[in-house]
């Protein structure tokens, strides 16, 4: 059955707005787990705009489920991953000016570079995922890096304003899932997913995890984290294997 992993970056975003101590992403992670999240995700950005190093450390120490660390493929982040030992690292592209991760990682022509980057990660028993667009060439390149997972970028699908454009993006993702599975990759989905647009994946097999942050934290403002996570986890529990 596919599972929900909850991204708590936006709890840290709110805390960093005042550079204070609340809200506490560690508490939010605990509450998300209690409400049915199968894992917690944090993105430690190079500019530390939301999640801080201590958040990663404390969530790893207190996590009852599993911690996924999203990060750029830099030496600094590799050091942190090897020290923290999350369940999984997810490599993402990072630009300082972007509001959020804007596109997938480019794997084409970087297969060996990424393989070398992931080698020490794998030696520690940490699994690896690559956040990529649903482009067949990217998926093929990703399969040559030794990563066990890809996370298909659903942002273009989620952001599409018109139904036709959305369907085009959906079709690309559906084809990408099949190709990735055929190549032996496990598939996660993430970015921009919410309580409505996720429903198009309900009957789609071959998806392991949904990585969701913003929609859950936005709903949590009105109904609380427990209800917001529970609603999403219950929805995903009805999805195809
Ligand atoms: N997956 C990746 C790789 C991301 O960068 C993000 C955003 O931090 C997400 C999933 C979650 O996206 P959202 O917050 O839109 O649910």
From TrEMBL:
Q: Where does 1-deoxy-D-xylulose 5-phosphate bind?
A: 9-10, 45, 50, 100
**Is the keyword Transferase assigned to this protein?**
yes
Active-site annotation: 43, 70, 191
Pfam families, from UniProt?
PdxJ
Q: Where are the transmembrane segments?
A: none
Q: Which reaction does it catalyse?
A: 3-amino-2-oxopropyl phosphate + 1-deoxy-D-xylulose 5-phosphate = pyridoxine 5'-phosphate + phosphate + 2 H2O + H(+)
Q: Which keywords fit this entry according to its UniProt record? A: Cytoplasm, Pyridoxine biosynthesis, Transferase
Provide the site residues for: Transition state stabilizer: 151
Which pathway features in its UniProt record? Cofactor biosynthesis; pyridoxine 5'-phosphate biosynthesis; pyridoxine 5'-phosphate from D-erythrose 4-phosphate: step 5/5
Q: Does the keyword Transferase apply?
A: yes
What InterPro entries does this protein's entry cite?
Aldolase_TIM, PyrdxlP_synth_PdxJ, Pyridoxine-5'_phos_synth
Q: Which Gene3D superfamilies match?
A: Aldolase class I
Name the enzyme's class: transferase
For binding 3-amino-2-oxopropyl phosphate, which residues are annotated in this chain's numbering? 7, 18, 192, 213-214
Which locations, inside or outside the cell, does it occupy?
Cytoplasm
EC number from the UniProt entry: 2.6.99.2
Q: What does this protein do?
A: Catalyzes the complicated ring closure reaction between the two acyclic compounds 1-deoxy-D-xylulose-5-phosphate (DXP) and 3-amino-2-oxopropyl phosphate (1-amino-acetone-3-phosphate or AAP) to form pyridoxine 5'-phosphate (PNP) and inorganic phosphate.
Q: How does it assemble?
A: Homooctamer; tetramer of dimers.
Q: Which family does it belong to?
A: Belongs to the PNP synthase family.
Its recorded name reads Pyridoxine 5'-phosphate synthase
Q: Which organism is it from?
A: Pseudodesulfovibrio portus
Lineage, broadest ranks: Bacteria, Pseudomonadati, Thermodesulfobacteriota, Desulfovibrionia, Desulfovibrionales
What gene is this protein translated from?
Answer: pdxJ
């Amino acid at each position: 059955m596919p599972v929900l992993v909850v991204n708590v970056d936006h709890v840290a975003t709110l805390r960093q707005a005042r550079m204070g101590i609340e809200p506490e992403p560690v508490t939010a992670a605990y509450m998300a787990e209690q409400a049915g999240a199968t894992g917690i995700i944090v993105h430690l950005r190079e500019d530390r705009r939301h999640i801080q190093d201590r958040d990663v450390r404390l969530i790893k120490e207190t996590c009852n489920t599993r911690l996924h660390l999203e990060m750029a493929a830099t030496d600094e982040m590799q050091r942190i991953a090897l020290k923290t030992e999350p369940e999984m690292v997810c490599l993402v592209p990072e630009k300082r000016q972007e509001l959020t991760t804007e596109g997938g990682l480019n794997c084409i022509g970087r297969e060996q570079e990424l393989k070398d980057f992931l080698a020490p990660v794998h030696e520690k028993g940490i699994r690896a995922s690559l956040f990529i667009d649903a482009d067949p060439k990217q998926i093929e390149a990703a399969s040559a890096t030794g990563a066990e997972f890809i996370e298909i970028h659903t942002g273009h699908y989620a952001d599409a304003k018109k139904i036709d454009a959305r369907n085009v993006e959906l079709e690309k993702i559906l084809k990408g899932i099949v190709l990735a599975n055929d190549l032996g990759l496990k598939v996660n989905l993430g970015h921009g997913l919410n309580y409505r647009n996720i429903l198009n994946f309900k009957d789609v097999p071959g998806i392991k995890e949904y990585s969701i942050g913003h929609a859950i934290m936005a709903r949590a403002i009105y109904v609380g984290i427990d209800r917001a996570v529970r609603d999403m986890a219950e929805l995903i529990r009805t999805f195809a294997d």
